[in-house]
Structures are given as structure tokens and as C-alpha cells.
Design goal:
Radius of gyration: 23 Å
Number of domains: 1
Shape: globular
Strand content: under 5%
Largest sheet: 2 strands, antiparallel
CATH class: Mainly Alpha
Mean pLDDT: 92
Helix content: 55-70%
Low-confidence stretches: 13-25, 364-368
Structural class: mainly alpha
CATH architecture: Orthogonal Bundle
Number of helices: 16
CATH topology: Ammonium transporter fold
Distance between the termini: 81 Å
Number of strands: 2
CATH superfamily: Ammonium transporter AmtB like domains
Length: 435
Amino acid sequence: MRISRTGGLLAALAALCALPLPAFADEINGANTAWILTSTALVLFMTLPGLSLFYGGLVRTRNVLSVLMQCFAIACLASILWMVVGYSLAFTDGGSLNSLIGGFSQVLFANIAESTVKGDIPESLFAMFQMTFAIITPALIVGAFAERIRFSAMLLFSAAWLLLVYVPVTHWVWGGGWLSDLGLLDFAGGTVVHITAGVASLVFALVVGNRKGFGTTAMPPHNMTMVVTGAGMLWVGWFGFNAGSALAANGDAAMAMLVTHISAAAGSLTWMAMEWIKHGKPSVLGIVTGMVAGLGTITPASGYVGPGGALIIGISAGIICYYMTQAIKQKWKIDDSLDVFPVHGVGGILGTLLAGIFASSELGVFSGQGLAEGVSITQQLGVQAIGVVAVGVYTVVVTLIIMKVVNSFVTLRVDTEQETEGLDLVLHDERGYDL
């Protein structure tokens, strides 16, 4: 009888332990933590190896290693800068200057321990998740100056640009700065990532000049297999980018993932159709570029729109980004080597503006969470436009200053003979292929 009672007591205790425990604001939520751990790995996967392979395949054979090296080095450099001061300036209270920039209370990740939380996930995880965004943003700019920039100049520019452009804009939008107070909708980085990187790329392409032979010599991708492999990795990794920005394993994350996928698919098919109509054949490069356009354009709206809105956003991205790519290179003769501005910059602008339309509950089937109570589409569009213009203008001015200062120390561009020989041998004394 005593054994039976003991067994019953143990069974009761086991049943109690199996019951869900109440969640407290200062406690870590295991499910949310597991999802953001996964998302963090996915976003880093976007840069290494996704973006690296995507960009590496797009350049010519003699420059493939230089592009891979640039992406890898930026990942390392941005990580250390984010730890030292970037995270603190982006996400802490800046006191009287908080509308513009954060403070120094978490320099070197000070006050972040195993038990420190941000919401209901470890703050160390939140800092790492945001670090992966800080890595991929300057890495995107690599596509603008590919095949003609000095490695040392790239490192100096990327470091300064991360701290002087990316970090302040991050604070404005996500760290409690003035755009956040204004009510800007940017769920996962339309302004913070895509507009800053895209606009900086256009500035860089204009200042550093076109590649030798641009417009007269064909410069096709040297390895389309590598490009498609990298593109597939970007697509998968983008689920962490957008759905992870919910910072929880919940319906918001699920909807963000769904609309991200729909927009990518719609952008791919639209871009493919545009090329098919114009040239008579669909291209592999076109369908993967359309995917990136769809992903970049849905990014700011991914947490606010539903499937219908995502479909329209993806189609819009495929059309508008396609025409901008043609205009940049063929009409305006600007050598944004790997189409960073027309895909990411224009996509970020378009997505940021469309977030103000398709997030509205006034559009029924197209609505996601809806706008804030009492805010009309017109009012929200005004806020979105202010965000686009402010971030764009700030990025142009500071990028120009950084380039001028860096060029005074290290010449940005290699000389003509070095460009002809290729950056792999000139800068790294290695070959991508030895056949």
C-alpha cells in the first residue's frame, strides 16, 4: 500500500511538471529563443555562404576570390565593431541625443550576461541576431564596386560606413530614435538595410567610375551554377531575416515567412516574364535576380501585410526593379556592377512605401495587422516617405564624406593594369581556378 501511494505521488508530480508554466516578462521563453537562434544562423548563412557565392559567380573569373574575400572579411570586421561599440550606439538610450543616436552603456557588450533578457529572449541572442544584419548590410555594397576596388580601401570604407551610416539609421528606426517615434513601418530592414546599402552603392558606383570596358565589352557572369546556388541560400536565409524579426515563434513570424516566400516567387516569375517578352527567352540570371528583388521589397512590409499584399508587392518589384536595372546600366551608363541599387535600393524604397498601403485595414483581404488606430493611409504614406527621403539623403552625404576621407589615405581604385590582370592575383596572389 505504501509503495502504491508513493507511486501515485510521483505520477502526480510528473503530471504537474508537464503542465505549461506561466511566462513572466523577465524570464526566457524557450520556444522564442530556439526560433531566434535558428533565425540568427539563417541570416549569417545569407552572407556566408549565400551572398558570397551569389556575388562571386556574377563577376569574371579573375575576380572571384576578391569578392569572396571581401564578403568574408566584412563578416569578421562588422562582428568586432558591433561588439565594441555598434550595438551600444544602436540599441541603448542615448540620453538627450536619443532621437539621433544611442549611448555607450553597453560598449564591449557590457552588462550582457547569460541571465540578461531582451523581451523574453536572452539579450546576448538579440545582440547576435542584430549583428548578422550589421554584417550583411555593408556586404551588399560589395556588388557596387566589384572588380575594381583596393582591399585595404574596402576595409576602411566598410568600417566607417557601418559606424556612421548603418548604426545611426538602425537607432532611428529600431532603437527608439526619431523615425521610430514618428511611426515608420520597417519590419525587417527596408530603410535600415536595403535603402542604406542601395543608395551607398549608387554613390560608390558614380564616384569610383565604371569598370574598364564597361558598355563596350561583354562582362557576363563567369559561373551561373554558383550564382543560382547562392541565390537559393539567400532565399532560405531570408526566412530568418524577415520571420526572425518578429523576435518570437508566433503567428507574426509565420505570416512574415509566408508573405516573404510569396513575394520572392512573384518577383521571380514577373522578372522572368519581362525578359521573356523582351528577349524571346527567359534567363536563369533574370529569375534569380527577380527573386532577390521580391525578397528585398517585401522586407519592410513583411510583418504588416497579408498574402494578397505580398503578391502585389512581389509583382511590383519584378516590374519596377527590372526597368530600373535596364535604366541604370543602359540609359544612364552607371556601372553598379551587380545591380545593388536597382534591386536593393529601389526595392527597399518601393517596399517601404507599399508597407504604408497594404498594412492598412481599409484594404480588407490585403491587410495584415493594420495601421495604428486613427492613422490613415495618407498619413502613414507621409511617414514612410519621410523615412525614405531622410535615410536616403543622410546615406548619400555621409557615404560621400567617408569615400573622400578614405581616398585621402588609400586610393579607392586599383590602376588600369591591375584591373586588367584581375584582383585575385594583384591583391591576394591567388587564383580562384587553376585548371
